[in-house]
Amino acid sequence: MTTPAAKFGALVRARRKAKGLKAWQVAEKVEIDSKHLGRIERGEKQPSFDLIIALASVLDVSPSRFFEFELSSTDPRAVHKQIDTALKDRNDRELQRAREMLKLLFET
């Protein structure tokens, strides 16, 4: 079973990668060691409230975005809606990256 800390960390990592940032770049901006960020992304450490706010600011999202793992659904319509919402306001570069990630994910 995946822990909430691991789910949180996976969302942080996904957002960091979607922004095209390396772990060291984000760590530097939030003034922590890159190893500490790695531990957070793997769910080994839980960030402080202040660090959650700093990560959200650097990654240009609402802090609540990192907790959206609680909203996951297996209903296909709900999943499609979540995907549509996630892509709705993305710029061309972000949409291209999302398409590339989906292609990689579904290649056989």
Layout of helices and strands, plus pairs?
Elements (H helix, E strand, L loop, with lengths): L3 H15 L4 H8 L3 H8 L7 H10 L17 H13 L3 H15 L2
- The CATH architecture of the largest domain is Orthogonal Bundle
Shape: globular
Would you tell me which CATH topology of the largest domain applies? 434 Repressor (Amino-terminal Domain)
N- and C-termini, Cα separation: 26 Å
Biggest beta sheet summary: none
Task: Give the helix proportion (percent range).
Answer: 55-70%
Number of helices: 6
Structure notes:
- The mean pLDDT is 89.
- α2 (23-30) packs across α3.
- The two termini are 26 Å apart.
- This protein is an all-alpha fold and 108 residues long.
- 64% of the residues lie in helices and 0% in strands.
Write a concise synopsis of the structure shown.
The protein is built from 6 helices and no strands. The chain has helices at residues 4-18, 23-30, 34-41, 49-58, 76-88, 92-106.
Keywords:
434 Repressor (Amino-terminal Domain); 2 domains; 0% strand; 108 residues; mainly alpha
